[in-house]
Amino acid sequence: MSLRVLAITGHSDLPETFQFIGLHNAGVQIHVICPETAAHKQLLLDAGIKVTRLELKSRVDSAARAAIKVILDKADFDIIHVFNNKALQNTLPLVKRSRIKLIAYRGIEGNVSVFDPISWMTYLNPRVDKIVCVANAIRGYFNKLRFLWWQFPKDKAVTI
Questions:
Q1: Residues 89-136: pLDDT tens digits?
Q2: Segment 19-60, tens digit of pLDDT
Q3: With 0-12 CB in 10 A as exposed, 13-18 as middle and 19+ as buried, what is 109?
Q4: Residue 147: its H or E element
Q5: What does the radius of gyration of the chain's CA atoms come to, in whole angstroms?
Q6: CATH number of the domain that 85 lies in?
Q7: How many domains does the chain have?
């Protein structure tokens, strides 16, 4: 049985696109959600990857959440990999009590704080299983987060 992955992205740049194609070619059943305007959407379609066109308009987009929920209800995914804040914040309520692993991507250092409620609704949310960081500095930033007795779990952020 192969791994089933739902990837939700805002633009699907070339590295993301080839990551999805590589996973697909390795036998991973991948389904990509991206906007109609995604630059490399056609490469995904040409590779035989299932693509759903959906634009997340805001961090709380009830129409998008409903559309994602329909996709989640139709397939039994093992992993959801989200590539931006809107995708993360809209997906979290849908998988709150699910066994699906939730992986977030982080490409910049900063703008996450233990004092910011939005951070707890995204990257600091305990429901996020892993954060894939594009650089060691970003992973280090997460690993330094702490407040009183709480500290960021050391194994949660990983560097690619």
A1: 999 999 998 999 999 999 988 899 999 999 999 999 999 999 999 999
A2: 999 999 999 999 999 999 988 999 999 999 999 999 999 889
A3: middle
A4: strand 146-147
A5: 16
A6: 3.40.50.2000
A7: 1
Query: In this structure, are residues 31 and 71 in contact, taking their beta carbons and an 8 Å threshold?
Result: yes
82 exposed, middle or buried (CB, 10 Å; 0-12, 13-18, 19+)?
Answer: buried
- Check: CB of residue 138 under 8 Å from CB of residue 107: yes
Parent domain of 151: 4-159
Distances in Å between the Cα of 11 and the Cα atoms of 48, 97, 101, 138 are 18, 28, 22, 21
Give the span between the Cα atoms of 160 and 136, in whole angstroms. Answer: 8
Q: Which letter, b or e, does each residue of 22-49 get, where b requires 16 or more Cβ atoms within 10 Å of its Cβ?
A: ebbeeebbbbbbbbeebebbebbeebeb
Amino acid of residue 144: K
Find all residues with CB under 8 Å of 139, minimum gap 6, and list them. Answer: 131, 133, 157, 158, 159
Q: If you write DSSP's letter for every residue of 3-34 in order, what string do you get?
A: -EEEEE-SS--HHHHHHHHHHHHTT-EEEEEE
Q: Which residue, 38, 39, 94, is CA-closest to 62?
A: 94
